[in-house]
Design brief:
Layout (H helix, E strand, L loop, with lengths): L1 H49 L2 H7 L5 E8 L9 E7 L3 E8 L4 E9 L2 H13 L24 E8 L2 E9 L12 H9 L5 H7 L12
Antiparallel strand pairs: 1-2, 1-5, 2-3, 3-4, 5-6
Length: about 220
């Protein structure tokens, strides 16, 4: 009789035990799947954060890709203010010099280009760290009034005429900006893409003969 009672008690306990085991296994499986999914997402987000979008754009030779250098002169009267830009893409090379703060063109030179030449240029610019920089706040990236007595240099990568990444530096020691590249090296690479490019820059008083980092 006692044996029968113990057996009945055990029989009632078996389903409960099975339910507990199944529940534990299910919970463990859900946790494992969640960790796997969120772990992958976290890794993906970390990897995305570490990607230098400017460098990726710089090394792209797809249609619509381009690099641009802009040089702004000292802040003076509108009639005397000068600047220039050089834009290079796989299809073209263009340099324009400007008068005044509204960018009135003074001289312009347009030339054809090809993918092979563009590839060599952008890889050379990458080796010179054109798109390596220090992150700045929006306020720190406001170039209005920066380095009034010297020149500002802006390096940009473009995709379909839109800026992908922009870095800048200047002649002034107190306004070194976000760019880490050697300015003279980057300028030299861009100006050599335009025959008479250095002459055009010198013609508006923005040659690179003066020492960087004025006080």
């Amino acid at each position: 009789m006692k044996y029968t009672q113990r057996r009945n008690s055990f029989s009632r306990f078996v389903p409960i035990l099975l339910v507990i085991v199944i529940t534990v296994v299910a919970v463990a499986a859900v946790i494992a799947i969640g960790r796997a999914l969120f772990g992958k997402n976290d890794s993906g987000q970390t990897a995305d954060q570490n990607v230098n979008v400017g460098q990726v754009a710089l090394l792209s030779t797809d249609a619509g890709s381009a690099v641009r250098l802009t040089v702004r002169g000292p802040i003076v009267a509108n009639e005397n203010f000068r600047s220039y830009s050089i834009t290079i893409s796989p299809e073209s090379r263009e340099m324009t010099t400007y008068e005044g703060y509204l960018d009135k063109p003074i001289a312009e030179k347009k030339l054809d280009n090809n993918s092979k030449a563009y590839t060599e240029l952008v890889y050379a610019l990458d080796k010179r760290k054109m798109m390596e920089g220090t992150p700045l706040t929006e306020q720190q990236n406001d170039l209005r009034g920066i380095c009034a007595s010297g020149k500002i240099y802006k390096f940009e990568t473009l995709k379909d005429n839109s800026v992908v990444k922009s870095l800048w530096t200047s002649d002034c020691s107190g306004s070194k900006g976000s760019a880490q590249a050697n300015v003279n090296e980057i300028l030299d690479m861009f100006l050599k893409q335009i025959p008479d490019g250095k002459k055009m820059a010198a013609g508006i008083g923005l040659s690179q003969e003066e020492a960087l980092f004025k006080l």
